[in-house]
Design goal:
Helices cover about 40% and strands about 20% of the residues. It is of the alpha+beta class. It has 2 domains: about 40 residues; about 325 residues, (Glycosyl)asparaginase (Glutamine Phosphoribosylpyrophosphate, subunit 1, domain 1), CATH 3.60.20. It has an 8-stranded mixed beta sheet. Strand 7 and strand 8 form a beta hairpin.
Length: about 375
């Protein structure tokens, strides 16, 4: 009988505990829980990394003025993204803002300042990815949209697709209200003279000067940085990387994002598409691993799936972000005879870059810290 009473007492005690657990908590406890959650969210410090291309970048080639100009441009792009993050904006907004600045800067091969195809036209590619939900957007062969990065984002947010190309992409941009420009908007004399020089060197016909371009100068244009690859795409021609741009960011909510924009290869065949608009090759972002933007010999980056490969090593092999980046760039990419570099960021605040060329235009900052701007490989 005593045993039965003890059993019933235990059952009643458990039932009472269950009722207490389900009962509403006092207002003070709810407030404390809410504050704890807010404090956890506020623990994230924003960070941003930007790049403007990787290649054979020498101090002697840039000169003091070129060095200063590139550093100033990188600082402006980084600051544009940092301002977004500092006022509580999203990583996606910061990436777009930073890349827009670089697309408008003629020093870089993206937007205004893009290289020309063999037919003398500018064909622009871009992509963007949101690490919080794996949504992505990309465009290729754009010729009339001022900011391809914004068009890539519009594809992600305002269409059921991931990628649009060519005239269809530009038409979509116009429909959603993105700024449209005449193709001559992207013309720069330095890029045009560089194309002419390369075509003449290889005995190829020089196309007519683009309609709407300003008249030829009476004196030669000051060339932008010409960056020959160690391993050209066709293993014989003089291929160049002219400053493909990209950004990765972490916001205070703990979300990450990545974006990339480019004009592609100089003197490329019309319609050629590299890694920049390819999700998983030139751009990738996931809150479960990292966000990556790449630059370099695009065909190799596509074959290896560089951006996703870095994130896979972090997610599935437990590598640090720097270890993963270095393995992909210095081992896997070089094994294919590809060259270039990446920038990457993780939800825990890790910011890295890795490249197998003598230089890479790059900058980074974390909340409360100083801006770091680097160009050459001997700069940490």
């Amino acid at each position: 009988m005593k045993r039965i009473c003890c059993v019933f007492a235990g059952v009643f005690a458990l039932a009472a505990l269950a009722v207490l657990a389900q009962a509403p908590q006092p207002a003070g406890q709810n407030v404390q829980a809410g504050q704890a959650e807010q404090n956890e969210q506020a623990a994230h410090h924003w960070s941003i990394v930007v790049h403007g291309g990787a290649g054979v970048i020498a101090r002697t080639a840039l000169g003091p003025k070129g060095d200063a100009d590139y550093r100033a441009s990188l600082a402006q792009a980084e600051a544009a993204g940092a301002r977004v993050l500092d006022r509580g904006g999203s990583a996606l907004d910061a990436v777009e803002a930073a890349i827009q600045v670089l697309e408008d800067d003629p020093l870089f091969n993206a937007g205004r300042g893009a290289v020309f195809t063999v037919e003398g036209k500018n064909e622009l590619d871009s992509s963007i990815m949101d690490g919080s939900n794996l949504k992505a957007g990309a465009v290729a062969g754009v010729t009339r949209t001022r900011h391809p990065i914004s068009l890539a984002r519009a594809v992600m947010e305002k269409s059921p697709y991931v990628m649009l190309a060519g005239t269809g992409a530009d038409a979509f941009a116009a429909r959603v209200g993105l700024e449209q420009v005449d193709p001559s908007f992207f013309f720069t004399e330095a890029r045009w003279q560089s194309l002419v020089k390369q075509l003449q060197k290889h005995g190829l016909p020089v196309p007519p000067r683009p309609v709407g371009a300003p008249p030829p100068p009476t004196s030669p244009a000051v060339p932008v940085a010409q960056i020959p690859l160690k391993f050209p795409v066709d293993e014989s021609a003089d291929a160049y990387v002219h400053g493909t741009v990209g950004a990765v960011a972490l916001d205070r909510a703990g979300n990450i994002a990545a974006g990339t924009s480019t004009g592609g290869l100089q003197a490329k065949m019309p319609g050629r598409v590299g890694d920049s608009p390819i999700i998983g090759a030139g751009t990738y972002a996931s809150n479960q691993s990292c966000a990556v933007s790449a630059t370099g010999s695009g065909e190799y980056f596509i074959r290896l799936g560089v951006a996703r490969e870095v994130c896979n090593l972090v997610a599935f092999k437990g590598m640090s972000l720097q270890q993963a980046a270095d393995q992909v760039i210095h081992q896997e990419l070089e094994a294919l005879h590809g060259d270039g570099g990446i920038i990457a960021i993780a939800p825990d605040g890790q910011m890295v870059w890795s490249f197998n060329t003598p230089g890479m235009f790059r900058a980074r900052q974390t909340e409360g810290g100083k801006v770091e701007i680097r160009i050459y490989s001997d700069e940490p």
